[in-house]
Structures are given as C-alpha cells and as structure tokens.
Amino acid sequence: MIDVHCHLNSKDFDKDLKEVVGRAKDIIIIDAGTDYESNVKSLEISRNFKNVYSCLGMEPCLKDFERINELIFNNKQNIVGIGEVGLDYKICKEREDEDFRRFIRLANKFNIPIVVHSRWAVKPVLNVLEEEEAKKVILHAFSGNIKEGLRAVENNWFISIPTSIKWAEQKQEIAKAIPIKNLLTETDSPVMWEGRNEPKNVEFVVKKIAEIKDLSVEKADKIITSNGKKVFRIG
Ligand SMILES: [Zn+2]
User: Fold this and answer.
1) How much distance in Å is there from the Cα of 147 to the middle of ligand 1?
2) pTM, to two decimals
C-alpha cells in the first residue's frame, strides 16, 4: 500500500514516530513538508526509515520561496517530489499564484511530481496547472466535483483519496467516477481522521476504493501502489 501524503514531520509524532512508522512498515510513505523547518525534518525522517520518502514544499500563503527553493535544489537527490504547494482561498486574502507557478516550473524541470493543495481553489489550481503545462501532478485531498476530477484525468494527473472517504460523500463519488489508473491514496496524517491519523490507516482508503470499484482489496492495492511507485519513481 502507499500513503502519498502525510506529515510525519508534525510535532504530533515527536514522541512515538518509531512506533507509528513501525505499524506501517509495509506501506510506502511519502512525507510532505509545509515550511522550512518541517522540510528539514522531513528529509531527516526519510533518511531514518527505509519506507519513508520526502517531498519538500511550502504551504499556500507562506512567503518563504527563496529559502525553500534553495533547499529543494540542494536536496534534488533526496526527494521524490515537490509538495505540498498550491493555493488556498480559505486562508489567503490576496490571491497570488506566482510562487505556486514557480514550484510547478521547478517540478517540470526536475521531472518530479508536484503534490498540490487546492482548498476552496480547485478551479484556479487546475487553470494554473494547465497554463504552466504541469507534467506530473497529484491533487491531494481533492475537493472538486466530478467534472473537475475528469479534467485532471484528461491531463493524465492523479487524484489522491484521503481517509476522510470514510464519511465524506464527495470523496466516495470522486473515487467512483475517476478511473483507478488515476487514483492514489493518502492519510494526510495527523489530520483527516477521528483523533490523530497515521499512515497505517491508508488501509481503510484502499478497502473503501476496492468496495466502490467492486475489486478485491489485493487488486485495488496492486494498481494504486503501482500508480504511486511509477509517478514517484520508487524502485
Ligand atoms: Zn497535507
């Protein structure tokens, strides 16, 4: 199984990170940074656990592009993608997308995926990604409608389904409408669960997708894990 988006670098895991990763030792885990400090921590975690890989990013609205850009350049060999980055119209007053565009260009240049946050901003995110001709894209915790989801499919991008599929009808509908070749799974740990989330719970997402797609859990897992390994180029 694969958890393509979580934050093991969160202070919520400071006390028992080893146990948390231990419970998910057969799961490929992609950890994502959101600011300079969490990026540095993410790199360290990926060095310490062989099933954990790192993406470096900058949460929407943060103004720290230069430092994070430099960190990405210096760690090209140590990361599997750029993220999370994107737009968030809930928290940003000014709707500025220049940094997001710069991260897309960087991901295209390195030929690595970009893991995208798009809360309250699905349409503008899709517009920017298309304008910048983004190649490898993972729309994390996608909150768009089916039409917007299919627009991502036309571009050969991925939609990542989070653990909130347990209660969110929109996530169930997206999982149903989007072909499995374009689906990935995530926990967004420590959030999106009742209580603290952790990568092991990605099992729940895979089982739910298998049920929705009327596939065996093994078959659904095989396809989704192979989608993730291919896009992140993990052995
Ligand atoms: Zn996240």
Assistant:
1) 23
2) 0.97
